[in-house]
Amino acid sequence: MHQVTVYWRIFLSFMLCAASSCLSAERAFTVLAYNVENLFDLDGIAIYQDYIQDEPGDQFTYGRAKLLTKLQNIAAVLKTFNKGLGPELILFQELEADFTPQSSVENLATFLDQHHAISVAQMLTTDWRSEYAGLPTQAWLLKALSDAGLVGYSVAVAPLKRADAGIAHTNAVFSRFPIQEVKSHELLQARDILEVTLNVDAHPLTVYVNHWKSGASSQSREPIRVQNAKVLRALIDARLAADPMADIIIGGDLNSHYNHSILYPGMETGINDVLGSQGNELAIREPSGADLYNLWFELPPKQRYSEVWRGRRGSLMHLLVTRGLYDQSGVSYVDGSFTPVILPGLNADLLGRPLEWTFAGETGGGATDHFPVAARFTVGSGRTGDFFDLENPSVGDNALDFELPLIYQTGMHLPLRDAVDLAQLSDAALGPFVGRLYRVEARVLKVRPMTLEVAGEQWPAYAPDKSVYAQLQQIKGAKSPTAMVVTLGIWKGKRQFVVEGLE
């Protein structure tokens, strides 16, 4: 519990600074990189089977109510910034790469104007029209944000691809700053890099939005990420050759950990060896030093995570900056402002793990399997010297050579609801409850297949941690129930308890 509290305090202090006049001498703004996990439209034309919608009677089929849930949850996360106004610049990943160009929206401003009198909730429920089915996800997302009071965004999205390209997603930029230039760059087996140059109070800022090849733990896929990194590195080199102090932000899901080369020694890595991501913040002061600084090094190692996979923390989401963001000209990074956006109850469980998207029930539930990452920047005058002073600068010498666990441990005393009432929920109502932690008094009836008895009801169960599985074996057949911490899960369309540990 202490750990989650620390993360919440970090994010709260970030938000208080963002909403206050602590940077009153300059204009401050927020940049957020956000993988929204499969934000798809409703036309049923999709690479992923889950979004084809060919089984309307199936509770796990994607549909209007589930799109509405995804949109509302994204908006709720974004509204935690800037007193509900949202970040000024958002770098999105996993919007659907739309394969129905005939239903595209040519002018999003016109689209918003045409639908100003109706909410996105009405569009997806009482006032549904068949022509809405193919609306691209950037239109749905922009409308949902507008309804929530997050307005003023211009949008850039990578061009449409053919379905046979095999790429399900695209990247997008939502910006309150004028967009000057947009380019798209193809990658091997990955989503196009979206290169967008913005006019930030008369200063150019270039962002590169990335979503590299998936499978961070797969060493066989690393050569693909190496190719992805080479394309990005060449783009950055060209910018810096023209202006060594150019203001550049690299963001998105690189499907690589900040310490990837240490976790997987003996092979070339895209993020560290090719791209040059590193943690020596002082190197930016040297013209011949490393030119990219990974903002994960702003945090202690225990706080460097945006995902939890198989009980281990990962750092696949990134924001990297060039040395131009440390000088007194144009846009500057606000030292120490980087943070993963961990919001218990909204996008995180009580352990501080992402609440992944679930198809359960009529509405679905959860948010995304990645936490967004955010940082603050300023533009304007007021700094002194060639580079501003850093507070506790990172020298990049504390990268870990292992992945830290994040699992339930006996004695944490989390404020958990009792799971006994979950048996009374209908299948249609399950969405908001799946993936969340509960306390339960249960007897272990069997371990293969694992079956628990809870208040006279039998539940299928699963214990992913071997040590927890061993504990459950030891108490099998005990007459008295044991207090357990569980997650409500779905397996092959049926509800089950995932046993996280004994209380």
Describe the fold and architecture.
- The chain is 19% helix and 27% strand.
- It is α+β, with helices and mostly antiparallel strands and 503 residues long.
- Strands 1, 2, 3, 4, 13, 14 and 15 form a 7-stranded mixed sheet that branches. A 6-stranded mixed sheet has the order 5-6-7-8-12-9, with helices on one face. It has a 5-stranded mixed β-barrel with strand order 17-18-19-21-20.
- A hairpin with a 2-residue loop joins strand 17 and strand 18.
- Helix 2 (64-78) crosses helix 5.
- The radius of gyration is 23 Å and the shape is globular.
Which radius of gyration do the C-alpha atoms yield?
23 Å
Number of domains: 2
Give helix % range.
Answer: 10-25%
CATH architecture of the largest domain: 4-Layer Sandwich
Sum this structure up briefly.
It is built from nine helices and 21 strands. The chain is of the alpha+beta class and 503 residues long.
Q: Key terms for this structure?
A:
disordered N terminus; OB fold (Dihydrolipoamide Acetyltransferase, E2P); alpha+beta; globular; 2 domains; 9 helices; 6-stranded mixed β-sheet; single chain; Deoxyribonuclease I, Chain A; 19% helix; 503 residues; 7-stranded mixed β-sheet
